[in-house]
Amino acid sequence: MYDIIVVGxxxxxxxxxxxxxxxxxxxxxxxxxxxxxxxxxxxxVENFPGQxxxxxxxxxxxxxxxxxEQGAEIEIETVKSxxxxxxxxxVRTEEGNAFVGKAVIIATGVKHRMLGLEGENELxxxxxxxxxxxxxxxxxxxxxxxxxxxxxxxQEAILLSDKCSKVIMLQDLxxxxxxxxxxxVLFARDNVSAHTGVKITKLLTENNEFTGVEIEKDGxxxxxxxxxxxxxxxxxxxxxxxxxxxxxxxxxxxxxxEQCLTKTPGIFVAGDCRSKFVRxxxxxxxxxxxAALAACRYINEL
Length: 302
What we know:
By secondary structure, the protein is of the alpha/beta class.
């Protein structure tokens, strides 16, 4: 039996494992794909304390090496459910395995909603970005497009308009759905323009490098040249398998506060999968710390 089983190997999950091991608890981290989560899409991270600059992959590798050095165990499997049996927690995977622990930290993160275009995955981090705070500086004095029209897209565009020579908004609806105040701030800027009622139909490349997008409106197509595309059409939490253990809000995020607690004793949540105002790698790590220490206290009191 493990002390703490962590579901998810992003920054929140790996930080949770680190703090568990440092507190004398044996941790198991179960990750379905690659360790690091969304941060691995960032070609350069310059806002992580203590690091002038490193890639998202380098940060993920460093965290991974650190938890292995501390003695955490790793499984590459897809968790399908978590069950409670008295003081025991049983984590079952699609591969048919069951892992037993005293506490579970769910750190499944989120995935960005994609446009669904050919070649999109290959261009993530190479022309396609999701975070102006993370990647905006790479497009200083350049032209970027922003796909989306809600609050997130408007906020991203405002940040980008401070750095980029031109920001082009691309909204598939006939109008922007974000707050009126944000629209007023954004569209008062001379370097911002907008296309509404358009669909992005193609990603343009030259010599395998991103060069722009093709849009369509009322059957007519147009090419827009740009240096980068920021996609802000929503995030998708993957919390549905755990809804009986932890309350979900209307958007599918865990309805948990900064304490990372849930309605089920011994079940904790951490990172972008929970309801929060700021989703950054540093806040994910903070959640991992909080959840791990809470889990340690829970185990000590058993």
